[in-house]
Structure prediction request, 466 residues.
Amino acid sequence: MALRFYNTLSQQVEEFAPANENTVRMYTCGPTVYDFAHIGNFRSFTFIDILRRALRSHGFALDHVMNITDVDDKIIRNAVAQHKSLEDYTAAYSRAFLQDCAALRLERPERLTPATEHIPDMVAAIQQLTAGQHTYTSDGSVYFRISTFPGYGKLSHNDFSGNLAGARVDLDEYEKADARDFALWKAPKEGEPAWQTAIGPGRPGWHIECSVMAIKYLGATLDIHAGGIDLVFPHHENEIAQSESLTGKPFSRFWLHAEFLMVEGQKMSKSLGNYYTLRDLLDRGYQPEAIRYLLASVPYRKQLNFTFDGLKSAATAIDRLRNLKLRLETDHFPEGANEQLSTRTKAAGKAFHDSLDDDLNTAEALAAVFEFVRDANSAMDSGEFRAGNAGEALGFLAQFDSIFDVLAPSARGHAIADAEVEARIGERAAAKKARDFARADQIREQLLEQGIILEDTKAGVRWKRK
Ligand SMILES: [Zn+2]
Prediction:
């Protein structure tokens, strides 16, 4: 079956194939590296990962660009406050982001493009927009004049023909001719770092980064542009205005957006105390595979309610799958093949792929997988499962895992909670006191296997994670 996506631009489900030959040219908005990314961010990035894998399972090659926003107002504010250079401030969070992605098994895009490595490209694009009369300058900052782009609003389906005076659609504090207008280039305020360029000192606005890097690496018209739903307006609308004013061509054929993540039914926010980074959850001992599973299990266009019960259920679901795989690999089944079971396994595989083809319906895909798990387990228990069925059953699990990627336990998957580490250290101390040094050493070894390093000091035992 053909792959179909809901396109935010057309508001329709459309069949997807790349425009040129077999390679999908895709751009997704990456992180702003001013802090650790939170699980709402990772809901979007996990959706992108599932999208990548589904595209590849259709035999498409990928050329996927993701930006790293390593300059913006918040980064500058924080770096200046901490007396750090922008590079020093952002390098740590860029590294942390990539580690978090690896923990969640998110595939690395073909190109990761930091904004600060593309300043001359952005300056050239702003000059070109100025030559095309799309900009004006105010207090040294350059703005995009929205009234020069009649298609504004076509992605978010907002009608901007009415009076928008006073509406605040962009979070900056500069003088603008129209509330919708947005900064392409921001003049530095007192004490702020700036690039010295042909259009004056300053830094690029967020929107221009994405347009410039997308067009530079992927050409005027992308196959897919994707991100979180909060980016539709104004960010993606502004990207379209800039890009199409630059090239005169449609910017992207498909626009895909992932819905919000809620936590225990509420909007995630620091003030509600329900704000979690990935690191917060790993430090509490949750497996990254379970987090990945939970984030992937709800179709991307539905709101995802992240709950700790849901996280436990995800871990249980993964255990069931791993147990079946182990059984398939190690049990001895009677010779022969059960044809009916074989037919049902093939049907489960088809249902799995058909569900993903249907705008990445991961919930339906998982339903097909667990129907198969029940079927296979009961066939094993009743002796109807035959040696000849094992290969295709393992093949189906491998297909499932090529998309969901949760079957292999990760090193971080053994991460144990702080309280458990302390308890094990207590056991080790008791063993030492009882002069059971073999036992004490064994506990040290076991903790080391779980990534915990013990140091015996005069003040007692200190420990850290590898
Ligand atoms: Zn973007």
Summary: Residues 163-171 have pLDDT under 50 and may be disordered.
